[in-house]
Amino acid sequence: MRFPAKTWPRRNERRKQPCGYMGDPKHTCKCNPMAIERYMGRISGPLLDRIDLHIEVPSVPYQELAARQDGTSSATMRTHVQQARDVQMRRFGGEGQRLNSRMNSRQLRKFCVLDQECQTLMQTAMESLGLSARAHDRILRVSRTIADLEGSADIKHPHLSEAIGYRSLDRKLWAR
What we know:
single chain, 176 residues, globular, disordered N terminus
């Protein structure tokens, strides 16, 4: 069975290495560096470049899970997402698509303009993390979406910084 690229699942769960304890504050990783490198080598850089968000999710203590804490309700979150989608639909108008995730390079240049501070941040991230051109474009799309969710017409430093944070695993933890 073949799936078109745009329908490929956006969520991909994966442990960082064979035993699953690398970086865990409560457990000791028993893997040798060669085993970790071999394990990490199973997923290619080009495949990682096609995943928008890379997020390391630490284990959560039971007390935190059991505690009744108020957070953003699903209804409130749905409203925020719908407002951001409405902004995107207005932005793209007759451009032939409606979502930031589908922006082509011309649209990226038009709708994801970075001020000097953001350009410096992007350059630093690209050089220090060794990110690809594809990762660069994904960062711009995600930062545009974050700005939309916050109701900002422009991509600002915090939006770009957050988007870069969602890409750091592809080079820091997965690099061979």
